[in-house]
Amino acid sequence: MRFHKYHALGNDYIVLDPRDFPAWSPAPTVDQIRVVCHRNFGVGSDGILWGPLPSAQSEFGLRIFNPDGSEAEKSGNGLRIFSRFLYDQGLAQNPNFTVETPGGHVAVALKNHAQLISIAMGHVSFDSAKIPVNLPGATAPREVLHEKITILDREFTFNAATIGNPHCVIPLAEISPALAHRYGPVLETHPFFPRKTNVQFLRVIDRANIQIEIWERGAGYTLASGSSSSAAAAVAHRLGLVDRSVTVHMPGGQIGIEIGDHFSIMMTGTVNKVAEGHMHPELFAVKV
């Protein structure tokens, strides 16, 4: 039961090649995912990348699982990690290729022997029907900008977006990990978001730099996130707060975002290999 562990700015994933796990076909169970990702009882990670899988339109297919066993439509950091894995295993013969996720197809560009990886993440939409968001009193789909929401003891103004997965972006003058830990879990599961949501608390530094604290759907507090960086930068640009080239600062490091026409997103960042090894069958004797 071979595993490969990488991190992208502290956001760590375990890559499992389905060819090494024929008994797990077509995918690991919720219990298997939870124990593998558990920080005490398993290998420990922010999720599992299950691939490469067959794809009718892309060179590679990928499924992404959160530590709670749920499936994510897309992950920017996960896609960079998966791309580095494909390079390391000699599976990606060309520096440019595409990957299919449940959240859509993305184009990958490996640079400097995969030390830097760019992902064309797709287009950001603010449409309430596409995200989706159930806004009280709304009779038709609309852009989700400058909306009010009360969480615990505080009212926030939020903006919502999708880049294949849902995001709730809250601009504030000051942000902190404590803020994300307190309000993130409640926002993630708020009735406004029928498929739950990723949450970003956003501080604009200047026209070219933003800072975010992240509460990730199905994973919790996260040091970095590629899709969150993409959504937060797009929201900041849509609100007129930043230009098209944005550096996103997170506790784990920085990601570069280029915003193109119709809010297309090119994300660029690094990946580091952590370890590879074999999981012992005893790992699965415990249910977490």
In short:
The chain is an alpha+beta fold.
Describe this structure in words.
This protein is 16% helix and 40% strand. The chain is α+β, with helices and mostly antiparallel strands. The protein has 2 domains: 2-115 and 271-285, Diaminopimelate Epimerase, Chain A, domain 1; 147-257, Diaminopimelate Epimerase, Chain A, domain 1. It has an 18-stranded mixed beta sheet that branches. A hairpin with a 2-residue loop joins strand 12 (198-206) and strand 13 (209-216). The mean pLDDT is 97.
CATH class of the largest domain: Alpha Beta
State the total count of DSSP E strands.
Answer: 18
Looking at CATH, the homologous superfamily of the largest domain is Diaminopimelate Epimerase, Chain A, domain 1
Helix content: 10-25%
Give Rg in angstroms.
Answer: 18 Å
**Can you give the mean pLDDT?**
97
N- to C-terminal distance: 19 Å
Let me know the largest β-sheet: 18 strands, mixed
Structural class: alpha+beta
Secondary-structure element string: EEHEEEHEEEEEEHEEEHEEEE
The CATH architecture classification of the largest domain is Roll
CATH topology of the largest domain: Diaminopimelate Epimerase, Chain A, domain 1
Strand composition percent = 35-45%
Query: What is the global morphology?
Result: globular
Query: Stretches where pLDDT falls below 50 for ≥5 residues?
Result: none
